[in-house]
């Protein structure tokens, strides 16, 4: 069967194959292991068809059966095993690693319940369990033959120099493998997710021999480890079950990595000590935030206690194996585990962490004698009150590379958050700006735009997004401008129909779709958007006949169940929507919609239909953002602060092609120094005062006038994110947005310039940088021959050797 592109609408005969081993030459590593507590995969069917080049063949086949493939696609549940950006980044990275031909594995937990389903009842968020496995999961394959034991609790026995962890409780880790196909290259990698199982003798060997029934029921306690995803984004909750999850994934994964490493060394006559010398050359482990940080003491435990390596050799190998990605600078998000909890759950690991810390502090003291404060700041153990382990410090000390996820974030990491560590080892700190996979976030979700681009510049851009720069030639092409605008309009009409079906509201598809979708958090400033909505409403009411550019404001996202303020923000948005949408004076000029249950599959619908993307976090708080990139690639313009990757988007497209407003990082620091006084903005800005007074007086909650008193109190007295300080600049910037929207041609030209500048934000580029600067592997653009070719021909054509198995 001839191989033709999925964009051309013809078929292709790609078939699943395991990814190739790389032969680790000098300075060349073998396998990449991406460790993450979250993989926010969404749906798999359409992505798999696209990457295999089978979408049109499947479309046609299903059509011949008298069915509609889109209906079939809508039946699939999202795999919601993540909260937001961090989990979705891991999913994009898996797609890029397979597409680049890297021998990479994603390792995580197979949560029985993913991120909760959000229902809005009477304007409030209500959580429902996400029973995503109810009808089974056709994409996974259980691998009981690779089941592994994981130990908890117990005590440590010392004899001479060796330590033994004994009397532990055992939980079994059962792996489930999901294939991760690369784009049109016959490569398929693996995501291996662990599920917790009680051993068959669980609770039956010890005390309660008499109560057989209770012992069997208690198996649930062990199996609860993989029951549910913690629903916090950018917030640390120091619960024992969460620490169990973190250690569970790490312990099972490291055993698997070492088993695979030893299998590749099979037949080697070298001693164990010499065998592990090559470990960092063949194994690279990336820690996605500090959640899998226990991997560092666990690998040390394996090397020292089990493999009997000397400490210094074990530590050298460990450091060269691990690299750590930091995802946030918010202090409340940093993991700091109480020593007492770690001592109870993982007593040997606590001893190892103490030893790591002692040697680390001895080294610092030798460089900075008498600098006690520096020792305190750099210690892995925080004293004062409850003793805690600073997991970020553990990751920095135990890794050979540390990276932030956008230029501005990496700079803050280097010069502020981990300043002492960066002064000590400046070469360790890097930047790797996040990216998104263009397969899901353009081909899959926006086929009209993908096809239009292919007509102009060919199809190679799908694997090399930097080729989008060729679109700059067509910025003044009237036909192309009209076609880009037409695709956007078609996407808007389709989404408007979806909204009318789901929400029973009539949407004007020629209104500006102003979209703010992401987790609900004070730092993301959905409240500032809300104040702007109220301001627009008041302007329409004040002068109903004045020209007003019609808007449909769409806000969506989940609040952590325990985050009171975020839940109040959702209620406020819904209360404002209730008033605005039912005011006959406003009519179709302004509509406000809160998108229920925002998730990957809903993002795929709303992003292609968006005109204006809201990226309005306080400067210095959003590490990168990736939604911003998805909107840019799909033909939305951005209104945003100079924060996260917005800075680099403005750099790539030209600041004049984004709507940038508000305080920069330096201005925020200056305001902190002076002391932020919300009252002065309220006193000085009449429209702000009016909006706040309406919230305060119960204009939007007539049945319960002081419903939003907590929100108002926060805005005046403890708003860490300074909503009022940026309000004026934001509203003025929004006026410029409306003005430009009236000129469809000028608007669309900016859109084209943005799409043409989006090439940098492919996760393929990000992964190439990780591969080159951190993992020291070469991506391969070699297409593995399909399996219908005779074996010997295939091996002749595949320089990397034979296919890897489990």
Automatic annotation (TrEMBL):
Its EC number is 2.4.1.1. It catalyses: [(1->4)-alpha-D-glucosyl](n) + phosphate = [(1->4)-alpha-D-glucosyl](n-1) + alpha-D-glucose 1-phosphate. GO terms for cellular component: cytoplasm. GO terms for biological process: glycogen catabolic process. Residues 779-806 are annotated as: Disordered. The modification N6-(pyridoxal phosphate)lysine is found at residue 630. Homodimer; enzymatically active. Interacts with PPP1R3B; recruits the phosphatase PP1 which dephosphorylates and inactivates PYGL/glycogen phosphorylase. This is Alpha-1,4 glucan phosphorylase.
